[in-house]
Amino acid sequence: MKSYRIIIPLFILLFNLPISNSLPISNKTIYVDDENVNGPWDGSIEHPYRYIQQAIDNATSGDTIFVYSGIYYENIIVYKSVDLIGEDRNRVIIDGMRVTKDAVVNITAPDVTLRGFTIENGWCEDEKFWDASGIKIFSSNVKIKGNVISFNRLGVTVATGVTSLTISDNIFIDDGILLGCYVYNKRMTKEDFLHEISNNTVNGKPLYYYKNLYNSIIPKDAGQIILVNCRNVTIRGVNITHTDFSITIAFCSNCTIEKSTITRTDGELILFNSNNNTIQNNVISYTLHGICLDFNSRYNVVRYNDISNSWVGISALTSSNNNLIYRNKLHDNAAGVLLAPLIHYMKPYDNDISRNSIYSNNVGVQIQDGSFNNTIQRNNISKNKEGILLKHSDNNLIRYNYFNRNFPISAIFMNCTTNFWDHNYWNRARILPKIIFGYKTIDGIISPWINIDRYPLKYPPAIYRGNILYVGGRGEGNYSSIQSAISDASSGDTIFVYSGIYHENVTIDKELSLIGENADTTIIDGIGNDTVTILAENIKLSGFTITNATDEEDISTTGIRIVGSNNIISDNIIMDNTIGVFIRRATNITICNNRFYNNGIIISPYDWDENRHIP
What we know:
Number of helices: 3
Distance between the termini: 87 Å
Oligomer: single chain
Largest sheet: 18 strands, mixed
Number of strands: 66
CATH topology of the domain at 468-613: Pectate Lyase C-like
Low-confidence stretches: 1-23
């Protein structure tokens, strides 16, 4: 048994005052000590309770519960208005044992103080308990002060409807704060985010909480960022990791989040009821949702981001409408894009998903639960297990997309009435309409159903992917050579080349699009050697004159030498080379709408039986 102090500090005895004349109010102090294993237990200093929950169950509103140092393996519910005071926040530990389905500390009563604890291991391996937390708060006038909150799925989760909350002087380790959790009561107001939050750290870095901030730049040393009712605020160049919801933007407008890195978080970069914001040029990985537009977030632009290895790349959820999701790289996620309501009558609609590279996900684009009037256009949807999945959603437009090597399914729908498929490219040139298979449930019977893309494309649409690098022209920072731009590009980028004559030999060794301004005036001169060599997969080469791959001593010099598979050569002039195009050990090559002069195409004899599209 520990040695107990008989004199209790005056602030503990006087901290709680009666909150209602109609409730039984007490101001006594109840003690808890995990070393009192054998009892008796009456909460006195001589016979403290062994468990914190025992003390709460036997307390009266207005009491103080004083907890001595120790490890308390329990999940507690604070359903009375009490003060929970730990002896030392580093030595009084409430451990959820990683079996928590709700919270280690669940606060349902108002007027509660929690101070001086370590709250840890609020976690459950079952993914459906995504919001298992160290602390959950469902009531108002709560104070969370001077604690260590560590290694929970989420640190502190605050439900909507909570007001007058104070969170201060806490240390978060691999945790953070989620405000505005509306899944419990299905509503949200600005007051759900206006609290007193100060002097907290996340992994040793400041947790920045700002409300009513205008025309400012957030410091780069943030461990977590929460903006509420702000306008014209910029978040640039932050590096956030091992927290929960890395950046929360609530009831904000005209803010910018850019050039930041977010990785290994248990939440997402999330917007609540925020309009006309821009999220661009960020790298996000290993998160729940990379970027989430939620609860009436509208007219936002999400562009040029690289999001990978997350549950969802970009999502537009409950009544998040009229957003533009544009030129992002979304790869190696469970779903690249998700449109879905978390409240069944608040559907996302009128969102534009355009010119993104969506590849190597389980599902490329998933639209479900009544999401309607969304446009999915000019995206590169490749190498996903399912290219696009529609569930219980109608009047969406899917057009001018490039579906390539999605296996086993390019597109499927379930229980949809009317969606519109138009001018998509489906793995190869098609003369006849493309049938999209799905099913409908009619009177409880599942029946096969079809949609039809009546005018599928014969060759891939022009799609600019990833970030755009520029060669030639007069723009500041433009490259002077094509090869230097390729060297600096990332996989999935687009290189746009202005008109001019480029005397160089180009080697493309990464996935990208190389686009010339005009095939008649954008010329790559091979100066006697192979002009363009393609080693990588998923290359689009379009809009050039490829010429002068000639050498009297080498009869194999080639305008375009293709070694990598799944490449597209379109809308070029290929002229005056020893060999125009040479295909060696490469499959699924599309060569279309090109003009050949004084040269042609040679396919290696080893590859004669491989699939190609050469209309």
